[in-house]
């Protein structure tokens, strides 16, 4: 606290004037970081959790059960208060995974984008307002991210969907909350709808910021099968039937047989032959699978 701030605080106390909440960060400064985003109205994380009221969850309708002891929930209400309830459920062992570990392993959020617009449903009914802007929007989302971090399991992950308006501010906030080292990736989601913004560069993408809680966080790779056209194009030059290569061997043609894991369609790779080392190297470069040599090399 600077001498000027100390003098001003004494004046406020002496005059009986109300003390602004901004003094909380001066009197009880948060842990110092290498850098952080500073703005008007930024509360301490401890105060956010302590001052948020938990609300009881009352069942309204049931659409069936997913298991014997649990079922999914669609919760209607203030998500900040709901998350305080979920945090208490985590602490009491009510919010846990199938293996008994507490917390949520995967969170994806698609919050408002600070567009300052009103959105309607498919039948023109009022859906939600996106009127919060500026520092108020940043703090609005930061409060919820504080709870989401606490709700996550130790090996959990979170994806935050944003656009060009506030993604740069929220990237800094997420670095503060999860640690910069837990930032995994920035995923660009290119929109397919047409644009005619001829006066400047068009905004054609949204951003998903991907963070994890720890190095043990779960990530399951996803693979997309090659199209028939792609496989025909890539592997055609390496595929000939066994009768052809048997005839070539009898002629003394030098060749080698290569074998890759059997999860690949046999007609494309299993038992393929290449005629020389250059062709074998080329095959290894285009294949996304480990290549093993089957039998002897003739070149």
Protein architecture, described:
- 32% of the residues lie in helices and 17% in strands.
- By secondary structure, it is of the alpha+beta class.
- A hairpin with a 5-residue loop joins β2 and β3.
- α4 runs parallel beside α5.
Write the layout of secondary structure elements.
Elements (H helix, E strand, L loop, with lengths): L2 H13 L7 H5 L17 H7 L27 H13 L12 E6 L7 E4 L5 E5 L3 H18 E11 L4 H12 L4 E8 L14 E8 L15 H8 L6 H9 L5 E4 L12 E3 L2 H10 L5 E3 L5
Helix pairs in contact: 4-5, 5-6
List the keywords.
globular; 9 strands; disordered C terminus; four-stranded mixed β-sheet; 2 domains; alpha+beta; 17% strand; three-stranded antiparallel β-sheet; 299 residues
Write a brief structural summary.
With 299 residues, this protein is of the alpha+beta class. The protein is built from nine helices and nine strands. It has two domains: 31-191 and 201-212, no CATH class; 228-294, no CATH class.
Low-confidence stretches: 236-241, 252-275, 293-299
What is the share of helical residues?
25-40%
The protein's oligomeric status is single chain
Order of helices and strands: HHHHEEEHEHEEHHEEHE
Straight-line distance between termini: 78 Å
Class of secondary structure makeup:
alpha+beta
Range of strand content: 15-25%
Mean pLDDT: 75
Shape verdict = globular
Main β-sheet: number of strands, strand sense, barrel status? 4 strands, mixed
Number of helices: 9
Q: How many distinct beta strands?
A: 9
Integer tally of domains: 2
């Amino acid at each position: 606290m600077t001498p000027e701030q100390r003098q001003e605080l004494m004046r406020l106390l002496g005059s009986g004037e109300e003390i602004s909440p901004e003094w909380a960060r001066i009197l009880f400064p948060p842990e110092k970081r290498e850098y952080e985003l500073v703005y008007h109205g930024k509360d301490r994380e401890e105060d956010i959790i302590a001052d948020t009221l938990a609300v009881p969850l009352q069942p309204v309708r049931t659409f069936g059960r997913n298991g014997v002891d649990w079922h999914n929930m669609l919760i209607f209400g203030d998500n900040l208060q709901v998350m305080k309830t979920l945090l208490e459920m985590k602490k009491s062992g009510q919010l846990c995974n199938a293996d008994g570990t507490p917390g949520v392993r995967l969170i994806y959020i698609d919050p408002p984008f600070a567009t300052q617009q009103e959105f309607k449903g498919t039948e023109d009914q009022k859906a939600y307002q996106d009127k919060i802007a500026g520092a108020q929007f940043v703090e609005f989302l930061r409060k919820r991210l504080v709870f989401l971090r606490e709700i996550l399991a130790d090996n959990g992950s979170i994806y935050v969907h944003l656009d060009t308006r506030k993604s740069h501010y929220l990237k800094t906030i997420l670095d503060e909350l999860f640690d910069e080292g837990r930032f995994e990736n920035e995923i660009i989601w290119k929109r397919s709808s047409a644009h005619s913004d001829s006066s400047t560069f068009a905004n054609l993408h949204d951003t998903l910021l991907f963070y994890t809680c720890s190095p043990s966080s779960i990530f399951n790779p996803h693979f997309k099968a090659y199209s028939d056209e792609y496989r025909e194009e890539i592997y055609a030059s390496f595929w000939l039937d066994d009768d052809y290569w048997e005839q070539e061997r009898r002629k003394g043609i030098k060749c080698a047989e290569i074998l890759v894991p059997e999860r690949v369609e046999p007609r494309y790779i299993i038992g393929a032959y290449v005629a020389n080392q250059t062709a074998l190297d080329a095959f290894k470069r285009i294949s996304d699978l480990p290549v093993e040599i089957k039998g002897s090399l003739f070149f």
